[in-house]
């Protein structure tokens, strides 16, 4: 089922990206100095339009993922502490249970089992 869902989602997405890339192959100049005049003296990079758009989208997705990951750090830290406390509590409960069973008289132990 997952493979069918992947095909249904990713094949059309790949076709859209392919068609977009084929339609936008002309080179564009990307200026690297925001304060330069438009006289062409500023440094620039020339790249195909589709590459600029897809790279911008990839950088945006990456930045969003990093932002989300960083914003969830306190939640993951609290969950880690809670798991450690739960494990400690389970071990303590088991230890107390063993102590309580050891403190019972021998005839009560036999009836418990």
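-> sequence recovered:
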């Amino acid at each position: 089922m997952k493979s069918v869902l992947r095909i249904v989602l990713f094949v059309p997405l790949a076709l859209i990206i392919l068609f977009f890339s084929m339609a936008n192959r002309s080179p564009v100049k990307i200026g690297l100095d925001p304060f330069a005049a438009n006289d062409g003296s500023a440094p620039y990079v020339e790249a195909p339009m589709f590459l600029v758009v897809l790279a911008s989208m990839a950088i945006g997705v990456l930045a969003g993922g990093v932002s989300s990951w960083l914003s969830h750090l306190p939640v993951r830290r609290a969950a880690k502490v809670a798991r450690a406390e739960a494990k400690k509590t389970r071990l303590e409960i088991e230890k107390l249970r063993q102590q309580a069973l050891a403190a019972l008289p021998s005839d009560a132990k036999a009836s418990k089992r």
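The chain has two domains: 1-71, 74-113.
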